[in-house]
Design brief:
alpha+beta, three-stranded mixed β-sheet, 3 helices, about 15% strand
Length: about 90
């Protein structure tokens, strides 16, 4: 299962949460929230170079895990958007 490089698919397997992070829509804040949920002590710092962030990335999961997540009806799937006018 391949995902587009124009967005970031994040998962939190323990909490059955998967969301599609779209650039310029507050993705950093959502990743910080996921890191807070797992107890990262430095969750407020920029997450992109943190080792624990990588395990949330859908592309980094084994294909069978990806398929399990996509076929598991108990997962909550979400994409968060904001009004483009807010960025003007």
């Amino acid at each position: 299962v391949k995902t587009s490089k124009s967005h970031s698919d994040e998962t939190n397997h323990n909490n059955k949460l998967a969301f599609c992070g779209i650039p310029k829509n507050g993705i950093t804040n959502w990743i910080q929230l996921l890191r807070f949920i797992i107890g990262a002590p430095d969750y407020l710092s920029l997450p992109y170079e943190k080792h624990d962030w990588k395990k949330f990335q859908f592309d980094s999961l084994n294909e069978h895990v990806q398929l399990d997540i996509l076929n598991d009806e108990s997962f909550t799937f979400a994409a968060f958007l904001r009004d483009p006018a807010e960025r003007l």
